[in-house]
Amino acid sequence: MLRVVLCLLGTLAMLGFGMAKADDRVGEFVVSSKAIMLDGEIGRSTIADFHRALSRLPGAKVLYLHSPGGDVDIALKLAAEVRQRGLSTVIPDGYACYSAC
To answer: Measuring CA to CA, which residue among 65, 94, 96 is closest to residue 78?
Structure first.
């Protein structure tokens, strides 16, 4: 049930991401007023960009994922940090999370 609720909330939140301005982007992340989304390839700057995105929205509870993948080692470090912070991850309908994602 929680997963269904998160997916529904994710779909609604994505409406805000669809109109993201350039200043809402932090590297491969998009920060809306309620959530953060990984929207691009995972690479060397991903962890630093994640920290900067979190500083814009420190109360974030969910990380939405839309990525073709990328560097596996970086992805594993990001996953450990997401887990440590207790964030949930959601792949909204119509979005994808491939490879290292």
So the answer is: 65
